[in-house]
Amino acid sequence: MNDPWQYDETIQVGTDYGDPKEVGDYDERMLKLRDADAEAKDIQKALSLSTDSTVWEIGTGTGECALALASAVKHVYATDVSPAMLEYARRKAERRHVGNVTFEKGGFLSGFRPDHPVHGVVTQLALHHLPDFWKSRALGAMADSLHPGGRLYLRDVVFPSTTDDYDAFFRTVIDEVRLHAGDRIAQQTVQHIKTEFSTLDWILEGMIARSGLRIVGKDCSGFLSVYVCEK
Ligand SMILES: C[S@@+](CC[C@H](N)C(=O)[O-])C[C@H]1O[C@@H](n2cnc3c(N)ncnc32)[C@H](O)[C@@H]1O
Prior knowledge:
Number of helices: 8
CATH topology: Rossmann fold
CATH class: Alpha Beta
Bound molecules: S-adenosylmethionine
Order of helices and strands: HHEHEHEEHEHHHEE
Shape: globular
Helix content: 40-55%
Distance between the termini: 28 Å
CATH architecture: 3-Layer(aba) Sandwich
Strand order of the largest sheet: 3-2-1-4-5-7-6
Oligomer: single chain
């Protein structure tokens, strides 16, 4: 039963990834800025994935990571709350003739989830869409979905606790983003800080520990952090 206080994660916060125009633009920008194959290799290594592994990717977006991981694992369940993202990702999988990725509607808290424990859970640039209490529920659900010894790869914008002056820190980050990724992404970074729900590292780490996961790897570069966690 859906309790009336359940957070409605289908409503997009900040950037509207439900808008088909935004979806195409996002894919184009990410293809220029990121190397999905290199990301998939890092994930494969961090999660010790093999061709027998099943993986659940949450907030798959345009599916680039799920499709890049596909050749290294048995199956990827890739979910997102945005029907426009899922449609775009399914078409991409068809064009590339990738058959072992299934795109399903669902988020951290609701909708599709694999019907058996998975070896790896992956989520990139998506958990910050939830306020903190709901992040902790999401981390619990991710932990529940893993085999004992299974791993979570969590990459997101996380605010560091090592600065005393957040305004100066944000100004520096936005200047760097503008320099390396252009005005549009700098503007989205401003919107991110203002309207989305990135949290502080110590809060996120506390939530991870309480969800029954152990942090076995952490890598912070500027605004982005990667946590590798084991059940
Ligand atoms: C910034 S995009 C990241 C997409 C992809 N993971 C990547 O790294 O490029 C954020 C994605 O998270 C999805 N999203 C937002 N809230 C979500 C939720 N509660 N559960 C799952 N996905 C969510 C959005 O629809 C969007 O596709």
